[in-house]
Amino acid sequence: MPSLASARYGKDNVRVYKVQRDAETGVQTVTEMTVCCLLEGQIDTSYTKADNSVVVATDSIKNTIYIKAKENPVNPPELFASILGAHFLATYAHIHTAHVKVVVHRWTRMVVDGKPHPHSFLRDGQETRTVKAAVSRKAGIQLRSGIAGLTVLKSTGSAFHGFVRDEFTTLPETWDRILSTDVDCGWTWRAYADLAQVREGVERFDAAWEAAREITLRTFAQDESASVQNTMYKMCELILEAAPEVQRTDYSLPNKHYFELDLSWHKGIKNTGEDAEVYVPQSGPNGLIKCEVTRS
Ligand SMILES: O=c1[nH]c(=O)c2[nH]c(=O)[nH]c2[nH]1
């Protein structure tokens, strides 16, 4: 006998833009985000018995996202995701969990003639700030904040040697290589009982995002990397140190390989080892290294 093991539904890819205008200074601040909101609860009969009386239409969920963005601050995204999730629980008794994901896209203020421009912005990279909120009657508000799509490269200061060598190994050891990755990292907060607890000390969220970003970039640049594994672990440790309310940190890092190229076939050109200058960036396969670090 089949039974519905789990179910959630809602609207994905809801694109929202909000502007804040400072009447005194004329300075405008913009936020662009993509929101996904999925509901869980007593909705089984909509799947098993064609009972739509338990369905809040995904179109209504989309409308709610716009209304809540108008009524409330959209920054920090942790607060907005919590407000949105809490709304669905407060409004619909049969919904027990709202899963909200907010992806904030970069609009960085332009500097023109050396001055920050009051209303012009540029997209400086595909990096996003992310929040996943699970708002539930049982567990309160669980938040995982993160950074995705932050592409970095260092041209030296990275090694990889001492790994297992056996009959499957062709990779030479290296004491100097290129290291490049698209950073996907996250930090999971202690559970908050309700919206009031999220609001109280709300500045913790921007502070942690700034610290995590700074720690990621500084550690990537300054660490004499023994491996992706070791460098990412150092980043996790530092984020836990910087944000006391964070319980767990995680990284998922592709190792984007740049292969040396033997050009000796052309007039004996030296382009390997110490003479390597022209490399071949690889699109795949790539390493993929992940970890989660918690407080012990
Ligand atoms: O930092 C690395 N970790 C690995 O596990 C690995 N494996 C590999 O082929 N290259 C690398 N680099």
From TrEMBL:
Chief location bin: other
The organism's place on the tree of life at top rank: Eukaryota
InterPro entries recorded: Uricase (IPR002042), Uricase_CS (IPR019842)
Active-site annotation: K11, T58, H257
Enzyme Commission number(s) from the entry: 1.7.3.3
Protein residues bound to urate: T58, D59, F160, R177, V228, Q229, N255
Biological process, per Gene Ontology: purine nucleobase catabolic process; urate catabolic process
Protein task: Catalyzes the oxidation of uric acid to 5-hydroxyisourate, which is further processed to form (S)-allantoin.
The protein's name: Uricase
Organism: Thyridium curvatum
